[in-house]
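WARN no homologs supplied; continuing
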Amino acid sequence: MTGGAPEAARVVFGERVELAERFAELLQEHGIRRGLIGPRELDRLWERHLLNSAVIAELLPPQSRVVDVGSGAGLPGIPLAIARPDLTLTLLEPMARRVTWLQEVITELALTVEVVRGRAEEGPVRERLADQDVVTARAVAPMERLAKWSLPLLRQDGLLLAMKGDSAAEELERDAAAIAAAGGGRGAVKSCGVGVLDVPTTVVVVERVAAARTSSGRRRETRRARKERGR
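OK structure emitted
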């Protein structure tokens, strides 16, 4: 044990485990009062939230540009920033009070992370955050909507990592057509933190393979493609 952290935290966060401990303390101190977590979550912050979020780092290539959509309390974005300082992370959150919280946490932990207020489906947000390597999402929306919102933020071959529960495979199959229409590939269900967590994190992984289809069935041109065509 390290302070209040379980032994698994040493494995996941390494030398930066003290930052993770401080984040856990901030959630304990402010999480319920500020509507970030429920009262029942205090006793399972590490296993269900911090470690559960951080282990998806094993799916992220080095030096990735990552957007955490609907970051909320900072999950999985803040644990990822602690575990993987090589990442260029942006936390995207529409609610002003949660944006304020995220900015406070980043300052307190001295993390190099950007916070953007907005929604992934908004035009200005898509322009500002285009061509990302990875988009992460935790408890944001069903895959049908999540793919439509998030895949346009990715570069070609970029990855959408959606943290899901036991029904992940069923959801992926159910929403396969919508994912394809949004420009996503077949998709796969991965388990992260095997051998580290008692209950590994389930992640739906979808690669962006094409631009989204318009209502006419045509593919929308990406910003990168427009730039290439204009040269």
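The domain at 7-229 is CATH 3.40.50.150 (Rossmann fold).
OK
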